[in-house]
Amino acid sequence: MDKIDAIIPVSKFSNAKTRLSPFLSLEEREKLLKAMLTDVTNALREYVDNIYIISSDDEVLEFAKELDVKTIIEEENPDGNNLNNALTQAMTELKDKTKKVIILPSDVPLIGKTNIGMLLQQTQFMDFVIVPSKGGGTNTLIISPLSIEMKFGDFSFIKHVKQADLHNFTPMVHDSFFMAMDVNTTEDLGEILIHGDGTKTKEYLRELGISVHSIHGPERLNVERN
């Protein structure tokens, strides 16, 4: 199999998961992101040649060293497309070092529940592999560095598929409940509690006294703190 490196972009810990702010304090959200990032990197280790975390935040870069992964210091960009610029920067640095990159976020702690090895095996035959998120975004992208333009943001899945078509790639879409589960809402926390046995993320949520119950209403799960 071709050499493949992982790229995980991480924003400031102090900006972590603001949509959960009514439910979790800033310190708790920071620790949650660290737990999720630990789960993601642990899941990838045996399948990729290197793991790179790119960030402009000193605390994130220090934590990356604790995780024993490589770091890239994100450059400042005035145009506001920080995520896409960061990924382009990372791929520019890696394009002569690796054949493929797997790009994924830091908040998909159930990734270890899927068959990562099988997914990466597909890259022997496919030049473009994409995993959609549950909200129309992109939760995993496997490509050659700089082979398409980065389009992360609202409804990025469709935008990335269009990029594949534009560059004459046949997109392989891999649907995975576990890889699609990025954490943004309290109901997402409930899904982690249900499916996340063996993860640092579930362990941390239990430490906080968070529990989940099935309900029949507008939402499927009731997530509460003891």
Summarize the structure.
With 226 residues, the protein is α/β, with parallel strands linked by helices.
Could you list some keywords that capture this structure?
226 residues, seven-stranded mixed beta sheet, two-stranded antiparallel ribbon, globular
Instruction: Indicate the multimeric state.
Output: single chain
Quick one: how many beta strands?
9
How many helices? The count is 8
First-to-last CA distance: 48 Å
Q: What fold name stands as the CATH topology?
A: Spore Coat Polysaccharide Biosynthesis Protein SpsA, Chain A
User: Order of helices and strands, N to C?
Assistant: EHEHEHEHEEHEHHHEE
According to CATH, the homologous superfamily is Spore Coat Polysaccharide Biosynthesis Protein SpsA, Chain A
- Determine and state the CATH class: Alpha Beta
CATH level-two architecture = Alpha-Beta Complex
Percent of residues in helices comes to 25-40%
Shape: globular
The average pLDDT score comes to: 94
Task: Report the β-strand fraction as a percent range.
Answer: 15-25%
Which sequence of strands runs across the widest sheet?
A: 3-2-1-4-6-5-7
Q: Which structural class fits the helix and strand makeup?
A: alpha/beta
Residue runs with pLDDT of under 50 for 5 or more positions: none
Largest sheet: 7 strands, mixed
Rg value: 17 Å
The number of domains: 1
